[in-house]
Automatic annotation (TrEMBL), chain A:
Keywords: Membrane, Transmembrane, Transmembrane helix
Name by which UniProt lists this protein: Cytochrome c oxidase subunit 3
Species for this entry: Albidovulum sediminicola
PANTHER family on file: CYTOCHROME C OXIDASE SUBUNIT III, NITRIC OXIDE REDUCTASE SUBUNIT E
Ranges for domain Heme-copper oxidase subunit III family profile: 1-186
PROSITE patterns named in the record: COX3
Membrane topology label: Multi-pass membrane protein
Similarity comment text for this entry: Belongs to the cytochrome c oxidase subunit 3 family.
UniProtKB/TrEMBL annotation, chain B:
Keyword tags: Membrane, Signal, Transmembrane, Transmembrane helix
Lineage of producing organism: Bacteria, Pseudomonadati, Pseudomonadota, Alphaproteobacteria, Rhodobacterales
Residues making up the signal peptide according to the UniProt record: 1-21
Keyword Signal included in the entry's annotation: yes
Source species of the chain: Albidovulum sediminicola
TM stretches of this protein: 54-79
Protein's name in the database: Nitric oxide reductase F protein
Highest rank taxon of the organism: Bacteria
Length: 186, 80
């Protein structure tokens, strides 16, 4: 009886990749989810002010950045397939493409920050900007971390390493698709 | 759904979000539509990019949690 129970596969065994990466993914989603909920809760106190502040953001640029990130994720997902097929050269090319698109994302984000700074808008201008700088800045830091991680896992090029790096990259993608509508569109 | 088909779906859904915002649509229909599109994108990333399509029970758990969060976001957005 005990032996049978011990042999029963855990539902966690179904998880693709490293369990600890999934713990990280869930943790990050909780942190960003709480941040976005707090943003929306504070917005209730000043909807007109939040709407006016939002008009200073690069909505079209953020839309382009969504395309950039999901395309980068597509390259990373293909890199995992290439790693599993033992095609190290192809996977490194795909990872390089994913990293390059990460850099494009950061350049577009940097242009938005530069325009806000040129307009004299800072963290303290309005609660909207306090939240948007914190949430998008924290996300951008994850983009940088993801780019470094992808570069690191491309060296050994083992399927396990590449899958772990790609999972982190997809988490960055996942956070952005939730962050984009709340900060830029609503 | 292949990875490439998932990517194409994500492109379509992302374009739809931006087009909705540009259309001038507002109020509750806009909030619900934009957050529903975000939920659809998140589901595709979880299922295909992160590979949870191979673990349906875990994917269902993520989808349920995501739905709860998005309903919370909708409530807060509509309360403003």
């Amino acid at each position: 009886m005990t032996e049978q129970a011990g042999e029963r596969p855990s539902v966690l065994d179904q998880l693709p990749g490293e369990l600890m990466m999934w713990v990280l993914i869930v943790s990050e989603l909780l942190v960003f989810g709480a941040g976005l909920a707090a943003f929306l809760a504070v917005r209730i106190t000043d909807p007109a002010g939040f709407s006016e502040a939002q008009s200073h953001l690069h909505r079209a640029g953020a839309g382009v950045n969504t395309i950039v990130l999901v395309t980068s994720g597509w390259l990373a997902a293909h890199a995992v397939c290439a790693a599993e097929a033992g095609r190290a050269r192809r996977l490194r090319g795909l990872i390089a493409g994913a990293i390059a698109l990460g850099a494009v994302f950061l350049v577009l984000k940097g242009m938005e920050y530069a325009d806000l700074a040129a307009a004299g808008i800072s963290f303290e201008t309005h609660a909207f900007f306090t939240f948007s700088y914190l949430l998008t800045g924290f996300h951008a830091a994850h983009v940088v971390a993801g780019m470094v991680l992808l570069a690191v896992v491309a060296v050994p090029a083992s399927p396990r390493a590449v899958e772990t790096g790609a999972a982190f990259w997809h988490m960055v993608d996942l956070v952005w698709v939730l962050l984009f509508p709340v900060i830029y569109l609503l | 759904m292949t990875i490439t088909r998932a990517w194409m779906m994500l492109l379509v859904l992302s374009t739809a979000s931006t087009a909705l915002a540009a259309s001038g649509m507002h109020g509750a229909p806009f909030v619900v539509a934009v957050l529903a599109l975000a939920g659809a994108k998140a589901h595709i990333i979880l299922a295909r990019y992160l590979g949870l399509a191979a673990a349906p029970s875990i994917l269902a758990g993520f989808d349920l949690s995501l739905a709860v969060v998005l309903i919370l976001f909708m409530g807060l957005a509509l309360a403003a």
